[in-house]
C-alpha cells in the first residue's frame, strides 16, 4: 500500500489537469482545482475493516489525502471529533435522531484546523517557505499555528472586527498579521496584491487545492462513526463553503469505493440573514451567487459575501436534493443558549445557526419523522466570549448565597 493515492489535480469547470507534485493554485480558467485519487486501485486493495485500530486523528485516512510522505505530515492531533447524540434538543425539535459533529474540541478550537493541517503539510511537501491568506479569523489562527509547526512564515490579513482571540493566535505563533477596516473580501484584495509582488504561496480559500482535502475528513469521519450508514441530512453553516464541498467530495469518494450506499445525505447550507448569497442563489435556482452588499452577522465565520467555490456548493446541494436557508442573528443567539442549557454544549454562533436551520426544517416538514440528522458545530463557543453577556450578583465575603428561582438561568442577554 502507498501512503497516498493522489494522482493529479483536475478542474471541475473546464476539465484541465495539473500535477499534484508542484505548486498549483487556481486553474487557468479561474476555477478552484480538486485533488483526485486512484480510486480504482484503492477499491481493490483497501477495505473498510482496515480502518480498525488506526490512530484517532484525520491522518487515519492518509490514502485519501494528498500528502505523499509521512515525514511531511504536520499534525497537532486533529480529527476524530465526537459525533454526539443530543437527545434533549432532538426531542425539543421533534427530531428523533439528532447528532452533533463537534468541531469545538479540536486544536485551535475550530474545524479550520483540519484544512490547515492538510494544507500546511502539503505546502511543506511542495517546498513552500512563505504563505499568505485573508481570513475571518479562525482560518488565519489555524494556519498561523500549523505554519509555525512546519517552519513556514505565514502572512495574515483579517477584518478589524474579527474575534479578538484569533488575532492573538496569529500573533503568538509569529505570523505577520495585518487588520483591515473592511470585510474578508477587502482582506482578499490586499493579500492578492502582496502575492503578486512578493510571490508567496496563496493560501486563500480554494486558491490552493488542499484545505478542502483536510475539511473533507469531516465527511469521512461521519460515515465511519455511523459504521458506514449515512445519515439522511447533514447541516452545515456555510461561509466559503469549503466544508460542504469537502463533505460532498468525501462521501462521493466513499461511494466510489463502495464503502457507503449510493444515495448521499441531503446537504443543507445555512447562512445568516445578514449575509446569505448562497441561500439567495439557491432560492432563485441559480448556479452561482452574487456579491452580498453590507454583509454582517454575529456568526463571523460565515460572513463571506462572495465565495469562489459557490458553484461547487450549489452543485452539491442540487445533486443531493438538499437546500439552503438563512437564519437571523437573534434566533442564532437564542439557540446557542438553548443548546448550552439543554445539552451542556457551548457551540459557536455558526454552529448555532445550523441548529436553528434544523429546527426550521423539521417545523416545515422538510426533515421528516424518523430521519437521522447530523449538524456540524464548526467551533467552540469559548472562542466568541462576546456573544454572551452575564450579570451575576457580586457578593462580599460572608454574604449569604442569593436565592435563585429554580429553573431560572443566570441573567443572560445577547450583546
Ligand atoms: C470558516 C468557518 C465556517 C465556514 O466554513 P466554510 O467551510 O468556509 O464555509 C463556519 N464556522 C466557523 C466557526 C468557521 O470558522
Ligand atoms: Zn479550468
TrEMBL record:
Cofactor(s) in the UniProt record: pyridoxal 5'-phosphate
Domain of life: Bacteria
SUPFAM superfamilies in alphabetical order: Tryptophan synthase beta subunit-like PLP-dependent enzymes
GO MF terms held by the record: threonine synthase activity
Stretches that traverse the bilayer: none
Enzyme class: lyase
InterPro entries, alphabetized: Ser/Thr_Dehydratase (IPR050147), TrpB-like_PALP (IPR001926), TrpB-like_PALP_sf (IPR036052)
EC number: 4.2.3.1
Record key words, sorted: Lyase, Pyridoxal phosphate
Region listing for Disordered, in residue ranges: 387-415
NCBIfam families: PRK08197.1
Protein name: Threonine synthase
Domain Tryptophan synthase beta chain-like PALP: 74-379
Amino acid at each position: 500500500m502507498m501512503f497516498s493515492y493522489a494522482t493529479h489535480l483536475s478542474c471541475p469547470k473546464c476539465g484541465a489537469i495539473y500535477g499534484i507534485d508542484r505548486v498549483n493554485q487556481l486553474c487557468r480558467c479561474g476555477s478552484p482545482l480538486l485533488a483526485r485519487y486512484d480510486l480504482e486501485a484503492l477499491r481493490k486493495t483497501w477495505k473498510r475493516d482496515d480502518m480498525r485500530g488506526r490512530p484517532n486523528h484525520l491522518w487515519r485516512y492518509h490514502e485519501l489525502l494528498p500528502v505523499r510522505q509521512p515525514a511531511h505530515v504536520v499534525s497537532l492531533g486533529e480529527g476524530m471529533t465526537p459525533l454526539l447524540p443530543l437527545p434533549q434538543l432532538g426531542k425539543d425539535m421533534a427530531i428523533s435522531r439528532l447528532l452533533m459533529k463537534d468541531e469545538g474540541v479540536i486544536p485551535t478550537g475550530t474545524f479550520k484546523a483540519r484544512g490547515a493541517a492538510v494544507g500546511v503539510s502539503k505546502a511543506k511537501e511542495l517546498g513552500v517557505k512563505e504563505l499568505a491568506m485573508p481570513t475571518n479569523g479562525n482560518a488565519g489562527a489555524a494556519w498561523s499555528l500549523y505554519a509555525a509547526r512546519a517552519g513556514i512564515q505565514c502572512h495574515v490579513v483579517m477584518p478589524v472586527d474579527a474575534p479578538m482571540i484569533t488575532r492573538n493566535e496569529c500573533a503568538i505563533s509569529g505570523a505577520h498579521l495585518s487588520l483591515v477596516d473592511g470585510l474578508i473580501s477587502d482582506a482578499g484584495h490586499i493579500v492578492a496584491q502582496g502575492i503578486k509582488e512578493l510571490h508567496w504561496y496563496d493560501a486563500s480559500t480554494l486558491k490552493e487545492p488542499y484545505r478542502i482535502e483536510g475539511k473533507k475528513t469531516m465527511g469521512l469521519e461521519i460515515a465511519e462513526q455511523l459504521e458506514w450508514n449515512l445519515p439522511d441530512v447533514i447541516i452545515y453553516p456555510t461561509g466559503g463553503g469549503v466544508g460542504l464541498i469537502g463533505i460532498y467530495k468525501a462521501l462521493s469518494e466513499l461511494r466510489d469505493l463502495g464503502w457507503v450506499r449510493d444515495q448521499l445525505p441531503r446537504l443543507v447550507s445555512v447562512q445568516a440573514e445578514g449575509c446569505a448569497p448562497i441561500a439567495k442563489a439557491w432560492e432563485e435556482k441559480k448556479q452561482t451567487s452574487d456579491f452580498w452588499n453590507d454583509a454582517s452577522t454575529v456568526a463571523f465565520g460565515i460572513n463571506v459575501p462572495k465565495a469562489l467555490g459557490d458553484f461547487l456548493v450549489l452543485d452539491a446541494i442540487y445533486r443531493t436534493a438538499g437546500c439552503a436557508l438563512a437564519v437571523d442573528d437573534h434566533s442564532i443567539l437564542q439557540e446557542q443558549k438553548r443548546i448550552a442549557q439543554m445539552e451542556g454544549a457551548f457551540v459557536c454562533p455558526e454552529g448555532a445557526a445550523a441548529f436553528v436551520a434544523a429546527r426550521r426544517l423539521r417545523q416545515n416538514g422538510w426533515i421528516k419523522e424518523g430521519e437521522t440528522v447530523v449538524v456540524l458545530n464548526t467551533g467552540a463557543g469559548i472562542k466568541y466570549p462576546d456573544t454572551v453577556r452575564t450579570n451575576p450578583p457580586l457578593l462580599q465575603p460572608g454574604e449569604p448565597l442569593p436565592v435563585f428561582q429554580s429553573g431560572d438561568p443566570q441573567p443572560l442577554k445577547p450583546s
